[in-house]
């Protein structure tokens, strides 16, 4: 029987989301966008997606990892690049959580305050730096 615990994969995605928020906050503060830590984190996202696909027995989940890789390696710069990357990661994370609920998998569940939507947080941070 496959391991039905997806918490470690979720933690990898949450760490990546946190690094995206930091990059957006730095950019809003006037610092140059440093893509290197985010691109380095793509490998962790891909590994998490592969692990989830294996545990769930659903290789179609890898399409979300492909979307994250495409967004990370796109030629866009600055705000559009961060927003596209955040959207791709968020879609994958939401899909994993939805499938996990249906399949009785163990995953992290927020109690109380709902998890912030990464694309919305990043858009807010980037817009706050425009004034």
Provide an overview of this structure.
The protein has 131 residues and is mainly alpha-helical. Helices cover 69% and strands 0% of the residues. The chain is built from 5 helices and no strands. It is globular. The N and C termini lie far apart (54 Å). The model has no long low-confidence stretch (mean pLDDT 86).
Helix content: 55-70%
Number of strands: 0
Q: Radius of gyration in whole Å, from Cα?
A: 15 Å
> Which H/E pattern describes the elements?
HHHHH
Shape annotation: globular
Biggest sheet details: none
Low-confidence stretches: none
Question: Which secondary structure elements does this structure contain, and how are they paired or packed?
Answer:
Layout lengths: L6 H22 L7 H21 L5 H11 L5 H25 L15 H11 L3
Descriptive keywords:
mainly alpha; 69% helix; 131 residues
Give a brief description:
The protein has helices at residues 7-28, 36-56, 62-72, 78-102, 118-128.
């Amino acid at each position: 029987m496959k391991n039905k615990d997806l918490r470690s994969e979720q933690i990898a995605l949450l760490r990546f989301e946190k690094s995206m928020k930091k990059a957006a906050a730095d950019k809003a503060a006037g610092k140059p966008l440093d893509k290197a830590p985010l691109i380095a984190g793509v490998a962790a996202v891909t590994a998490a997606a592969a692990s989830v696909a294996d545990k769930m027995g659903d290789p179609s989940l890898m399409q979300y990892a492909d979307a994250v890789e495409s967004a990370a390696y796109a030629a866009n710069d600055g705000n559009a690049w961060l927003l596209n990357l955040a959207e791709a990661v968020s879609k994958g994370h939401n899909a994993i959580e939805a499938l996990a609920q249906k399949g009785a998998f163990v995953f992290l569940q927020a109690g109380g305050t709902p998890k912030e939507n990464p694309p919305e947080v990043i858009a807010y941070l980037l817009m706050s730096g425009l004034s």
